[in-house]
Specification:
Elements (H helix, E strand, L loop, with lengths): L3 H42 L9 E8 L6 E4 L5 E5 L5 E6 L4 E7 L11 E3 L6 E5 L2 E5 L6 E6 L7 E6 L5 E6 L8 E7 L5 E6 L3 E8 L5 E11 L3 E10 L4 E7 L22 E5 L4 E5 L8 E8 L5 E7 L7 E4 L5 E5 L5 E5 L5 E5 L5 E4 L5 E6 L2 E7 L2
């Protein structure tokens, strides 16, 4: 049994230690309270136009032509850029402000959009143009694969690699009236077709693949007739079952111009599509050519088809690009009021507005950098992680 004096000594030390902790807590309490109160007021009342600055410009790259295609390499060191006004794809070492390689495309029509994609391991770079797809080794410049599509069957609209890089997925615009395949999956080992899917009457125009590679979302719609209009939709393709399993009606039916027929709502195929793998939602953006403000961006739950968010823009708004950052932290939009907007991943709060008109966007695979293609320059922004 401890002696009474020793017990009183330990009790005294414990009381003294508690008094010191209490003093330090009271000393820091005003600072903690002010920070917490400020965050609470800003979060609840949402004071100010934007709640924070999440992007900082770090580099500007000169371009002779407008940039309509951008893609970061897997580690973010290189940036591929393409323009519909030139036959070349340029590979930038953007930190050193220099072009390290130029790839010549095989397509004959240069006045078309030119989607780009790096494979996840970084050993392949694909460019989609008109009726041809070129695939290069970005380290050597050698062409390692080519896919040719007959001109009578429409052109390539969008492409993406599967998350493991085993497949190249691409879609083409419908040409003619006969039902035919519009969704293709090719092997990146042999460049032979694995499988294809006919989607008519749905006509695809944009593509987004989920992070785990089980689903693909197609932005497009159904053109009922030249006099009735075009119904924008999202089609969900199960990549494991090789089947189109769901159509989500997105925007109201639009009518073409005609005597006594004003164009109502968005009236062109969707320009942009993005998949948020954090909550399995799909964002879609269109070109509004209606008679007033229109809901040019809508976000849907991919599981249920329910709309969970949306944003309106003035007449003439053209959503040229949409991107979710990895893990769905931010949704980045190009087109509303000729600016680039950065929203939280749930599209509840506008975090930052960049006053630049961008025709293309790219986010590095780790989510650290954002590239904007606008006019005769490419801007690189660092994203807050």
């Amino acid at each position: 049994m401890p002696a009474p004096g020793r017990t009183r000594s330990w009790v005294h030390r414990a009381h003294r230690f508690l008094r010191i902790l209490t003093f330090l807590f009271l000393l820091c309490l005003p600072v903690f309270a002010q920070a917490s109160l400020g965050s609470w007021v800003k979060g609840v009342l949402h004071l100010g136009k934007y709640s924070e600055t999440v992007a900082t410009e770090v580099a500007t790259l000169p371009e002779d032509h407008g940039t309509w295609g951008l893609a970061f390499s897997p580690h973010g060191r290189y940036l591929a850029a393409s323009s519909p006004q030139t036959a070349f794809v340029q590979l930038w070492d953007w930190r050193k402000d220099r072009v390290v390689r130029r790839f010549r495309r095989s397509g004959s029509d240069i006045m078309v959009t030119t989607p780009l994609a790096f494979s996840p391991h970084g050993r392949l770079l694909a460019s989609c143009q008109d009726v041809s797809i070129d695939v290069w080794n970005p380290h050597t410049g050698a062409i390692v694969g080519q896919i040719q599509d007959p001109p009578s069957q429409g052109g390539c609209q969008a492409l993406a690699f599967s998350p493991r890089g085993h497949s190249l997925i691409w879609i083409r615009g419908e040409g003619g009236l006969a039902p035919k395949d519009a969704f293709f999956v090719y092997s990146t080992r042999t460049w032979a077709i694995r499988w294809a899917l006919a989607t008519r009457p749905f006509e695809p125009n944009a593509l987004a693949v989920s992070a785990h590679g089980h689903w693909a979302a197609l932005g497009g719609g159904t053109n009922n007739s030249s006099e009735v209009g075009f119904q924008q939709q999202i089609a969900l393709v199960n990549l494991r079952r090789h089947a189109l399993v769901r159509l989500i009606g997105t925007f109201p039916m639009s009518q073409w111009w005609g005597p006594g027929k004003p164009r109502l709502g968005p009236s062109y195929p969707p320009m942009a599509l993005a998949w948020n793998s954090r909550n399995q939602s799909v964002a879609m953006g269109v070109w509004s050519a209606g008679m007033g403000a229109a809901n040019v961006i809508r976000v849907y739950n991919a599981r249920t088809g329910a709309q969970v968010a949306g944003e309106s823009g003035p007449v003439g708004t053209k959503i040229s690009a949409l991107r979710y950052t990895p893990h769905g932290r931010y949704l980045i939009e190009a087109g509303i009021d000729n600016t680039v907007e950065i929203w939280d991943g749930d599209h509840h709060h506008l975090l930052q507005k960049i006053p630049h008109q961008a025709w293309s966007l790219a986010v590095s695979p780790h989510g650290h950098y954002l590239a904007l293609g606008e006019g005769r320059q490419i801007q690189i922004w660092r994203l807050q992680s």
